[in-house]
Predict the 3D structure of the following.
Amino acid sequence: MISNNKLKWSIQIWIPTVFICFFLFNAAVSGAVTMGDIWGYRVSSITVQGLTGMEEDYFLDLLDLNPGTVLTSVRIREGVARVFKKGIFLNIRVEALDLNSVAGEASLLIAVTEKQRVASIKIEGDDVVSSKDILKISGLFRGMEFRADLNTEIQRKVLDFLARRGFPEAKVQIIVKSAKRPNFVNLILAVTEGSAERIKSITIKGVKKYRSRAESLLKLKKLSRFDRLTLEENLQKIRQDMRRRGYYQAKLPKWSFDDGKLIINIDSGPRYKISFEGNESLSSDKLKAEFSFEELEDDPGEATLEEAARRFAALYHRKGYPFAQVAASFEVNKDFTTLVFYIFEGPRVSVKNIRFSGVSIASKRLMAIMDYKEGDPYDESLFESAVARMASFYNALGCLEAEVTGIKKDFESYPGDVVIDISINEGVCTLIQKVMVAGNSVFRDVELLELSGIKQGDPYNEVDIADARYRMLEKYNQNGYLNAAIQVVRNFSKDMKSAQLEFVIREGRKFKFGKVIIAGNTRTRDGIIRKELNLSEGEIYDNRKALSGKQALYRMGLFSSVNITPLKRPGSDEQDVLVQLREGRFGTVDLGAGYGDYDKMRGFIEVAHNNLSGLNRRISLRGEFSFIEERYLLNYYDPWLLLDYRLPFRMTLIREYLRQLDADTWALRYESKRASFVVGVDRNFSDALKGSLDYEYSFLDIYNVRPGEDLSGKTEETRAVSAVSSSLVMDKRNNPFNPSRGSINAFVIKVADGALFSESDFIKATVQSSWYFQAAKPLVLALSFKGGAAQGTGQRDKLPIEERFLLGGGVSVRGYDRDKLGPKVDGTPIGGNAFLLLNTELRMNIWKGLGSVAFIDGGNVWVETAKMDPSDLRYSWGFGIRYNTPVGPLSLDYGRKFDPEKDESPFEIHFNLGHAF
Amino acid sequence: MSRLLRYISTLAMRFSRQFFLVVFCILMLGGVSRGIVLERVVAIIGDSPVFLSELLEFKRKHLPDGSALSDEEVLQKLIDRKLLLMEARRLRLDTIMGDDMDSDALIERYLKLAISTFMPDIRMKKGLNDNFSDGTITKEDEFNRRLRNKITDLRKQYDIRVFPVM
């Protein structure tokens, strides 16, 4: 049995000993694993601390670290450098924890310190100086990094600015408050302007005659605040004004300000006048415009006069006065100096004939190349460049040694005309004997040779060779070979009649897209940007994809600037992409006004937010108003309804009030109120093909119905319509507002049924096919066909009044008043279940934005679909004026019926924005 | 001091078991394996980070063993080197078709360019002969002076932030 003392002794000795050994062992084990030993370990888990400015998944993706990744120093360094490019981090620390040397695993702790950024900037206390100016001077902007150490510099800049604006006692304080978002701050610039510096008196010294003019240009008056910025702007204006008045050596006036006394010294220099003698064909103003004396910095001396004379002479030569001469001199008077230009115009000469000798090409063709035709004014300088163009033309034909050997000009045989004889030595023309490619393994010879566009027998042309090289390089670049290089080796035969070309290609490495780093976005989510960009890691690097990604980002409407820069990864075949963005404003207010021949004055106002939750979701409230209609719409749009699959979603609530008027008499036909709810999704199958699916629920209340309107004798009616519609549109027009090429084809079907809780049952379909052809440069031929058919499927055959087809008006059959083509009851159009519409229009651009059209329209409406008859169409013809605006042309059309009926007017005039079709 | 030691010894003697138990527990905890820092940012030049691993590598490669320089001083030298590299890239000296130039080669290229730029100017301004000797300065001194001025200018151009190394 162990005694108590022995037990005590054991505990006192052994327990501490065990602890010491344990400690030493532990220290030995932990000290044994160093940073170098970690490389090659696998990541077992990752913990991220301090990250608020981006999604963790995206952060780890950029770091290229995931559970299971093998740790290497290069990987970690490159990953951290990549993430740093996002621009929101101050520091990133990567630590390995829980090392398991047996399994070769470690968990990672990644601790980030983010920069503090500015969420909002408010300026308070500025009563006189505008907040916009103060903000600009401060250099502060939303989203920038906030650094407290730079506050002093910002305060200094603002105080200097305020002092210059006449507030020398201003005070500025920068108040920093934490924003709701982590790592963001709200800044308040509290400005106290203090008392202003005032002008007690103004004295202008200098040329007496100019003083009153200078006083009128000076905006600062006695007792004004002494604003140095305004003073400097005014002094610049004074200087420009003096120069315009002939004081060509006027300097920027100097000023002094002391104890409220402003003294301005105007140094005008001598005054000059310009006069011309002998100019009969060109006015003095036209000549003065050729040489700007106002821009002279120095005294207009001999050299200046010579240069001015040379320019005036050159102007005469261009106008067809080849013998014109100009001499200049000074005349000094008491008050001013006159610069006199003596002009000898000589006779005006036109080109009577240009004759070529030594050529195998028709003279007409050579004249066309020279762009010089008989009857043109003879301009020596233009003629020289025309001859140079001919030499380039011969080079393009492979005649590399062609030269103009002589030019003779006969001015005497035909007074007022010149006959020009040009002798050309065409020399030997080189043709391509053979084209080869070498060094290519990615693309076959045949492919590259076809791409070059150069074949045996073609004339030797350096421009064609350069284009061929460029096309081949582009093909390589588009397939990921960003470092491809092509050298062209030329071998000429001894007699220079033939040449062999060899395109020697160095393909280089094939690159793929690496990581996409998005920087500059503070309010838009990374995820939505990456989806729109659509660049996948591992995909072949094609510049076109990067460009279309950039365009997609601009189309989001959220960014004022998008820059995409490839980043090389040393030793890798992947190129990371840095996308630098500048976010614009997301809230918009739009206003518009217009005029239509039916709805008269119209306007709209819309307030929208385009980036809800940073996901490019849009919500807007819009009001539309006109003489006949009042409409309110609440819209919601989400471009990515299914998070990973592009499916734009729309939802709209509409409340409208409409007064339907008779277009002839303006009498009220009926009034209606409608409340609608519409949801829909869109799908872009390709760039041109788009489909949509919509559901609409409308509650319609029609009242104040005029007798005779086809509502079965009712004076009012309420109706709920619940319908599903689908459309498919193939739009290949080159310009949706003013097309000159391409086509648009569309099909729409709408079904309303009791199963959808609709009180009206019908099925309605419309088709459209419109085509545009550029006949000759200013002419466009536009053709369009539209048709529609509908059938009531419930108790009523006829469609509800608001769903019926109606024709007539500026956008259907011109020459007929709005809705007036088709069946009528007592002169009132009732619409129908079927229609056909044909439009043919010839559009011509006359000058700049002004154009004209000539058209023939035809169409008809039938009450019943079964009675549709293509031979029973009503036609009209007419012409119109167009004026182009950024959103389509303003149209004014005169349409005339081919066979007006007894009560019909023979013509109508239509005014609209946009083409008829 | 001796009084303090005597006092601690007295305590240790008096509470020897508890004392050792506590001390060893603390030491044991201290001996438990902590995280190993794999990478950290030690400075930022403009928008470009300077890494701890770069600093260690630079120290190992470019500074003689047993150098008396502190880590902060070494970091400043590394920053100077990085500034020259950024300048070399700005002048597109790293453009070699298809290959990636390493930083040592790039620095060498930049220095060669600097020599070819500075030397004729030095020769002209100092009135030195081809041997560059006027007894007061050597070409190396003058070149180094100009290079230091260049680095000073570059430092003014970029916003440089330095964090504690350890």
In short: The first helix of chain B runs from residue 2 to 14. Chain B has two domains: 2-31, 41-162. The longest strand of chain B covers residues 41-45. DSSP finds six helices and four strands in chain B.
